[in-house]
Amino acid sequence: MAIYADQGRTDSSFQRESESRAEFYDRVAGPYWDQVREVINEWWSHLPADVQPGFRSRLRDRNSDTNVSSTLWELYLHEMLIGSGCTVEIEQAAGDRGKRPDFLVSHAEGQFVLEAIWTAQRLKGTAYSTLTLSLFDAINAVPSPNFSLAVTINKTGTAKPSEKRLKAGLVRWLEGLDPDEFDGAQDNPAKFSHTWEEGDWSFSFQAILRSLGNRGLSASTIGFYPALPWFGGESDLMHSAVKKKGSRYGDLDLPFVVAVGFAVFFPRNEDVETALYGTTVEYVERGKASTYGRLRDGYWTLPHDHDHGHERVSGVLIVDNPAPWTWATNTPTLWHSASPNSISTPVLPTWDSVRMVDGRIEREPAAAKAHTVIGLPAQWPSGKPFPRTHATPVK
């Protein structure tokens, strides 16, 4: 038994908005995705037999994308550790609280504990409800070889509207548009705009001419989704993730690393610096050059750090947006504790290393590429996830 069975798959379409991640990975066809499933199956087989059923259940969880993503994150970490020559024990009791961290790692220089957490940035608001996502899928099923659509949500309802009537209205409107007339759209903007209303629902659509090279090819009908405000506070997100795991195990008497899969829209080192080492400030005095320092508001620089147990965390290992298509290219970065009371942690050869020394950030690049220890080529997966083909009408 594996995570994914070797079966004939024929549906190579994009992930549907209402489709869970587990369903998508199991459904999508094509050589690119065959590679992903093959590697996930292989890495899962490297786990101890007693934990394989739990990992399999979580990877196939159709009710929680978070569960799938966090399990893939743990699977990647396990493969990276054993590929680096480490011996890994999973969920062994450690610390003075009787809890079981994800990994107890033994290596040439000793042991350390590694606890994984996957954290993701969320959308504000509730406009992307299950019903709304289902309507997006219906819109993307409308054949539109000449135009993509920019969608605006005017109103959302609580009862499901007719997807059939929505699609029929879009088909009639799009069939009446001539791509050769688009240059004059400013003279007749209403012709290239369409509003759909039913019950408490209302969407507006704007037709956008596809380039000549992309006309007639399979592609998502929606080119621009409704603009929604994103949650900001990437540094707060990181701080909360480390804090959640950092005090969980009490005194370990071993180096303790929190491994954060940092799934955010625009990851920046500055946000991590702020979260862990404190906010950078500029001090200005008349007639003197500016000087820079840090506020004591970082995870390791809070006043009376020992009162919060933050010194127990030796380092924070971060990979931005971990996913199968980034496994071979991302480089993990270990951010060392700024607390003098933390136990020093080793650095594996495929990790970048960051320290704060006298208020300055010092970086040391990895000695080897990360893909070399997880058994993948530098350019993996090979090929295109969704090769373009001529679109066929969807009824």
From TrEMBL:
List the top taxonomic levels of the source: Bacteria, Bacillati, Actinomycetota, Actinomycetes, Pseudonocardiales
| Superkingdom assignment | Bacteria
- Tell me what organism the protein belongs to: Lentzea atacamensis
> Know the name of this protein?
DUF3396 domain-containing protein
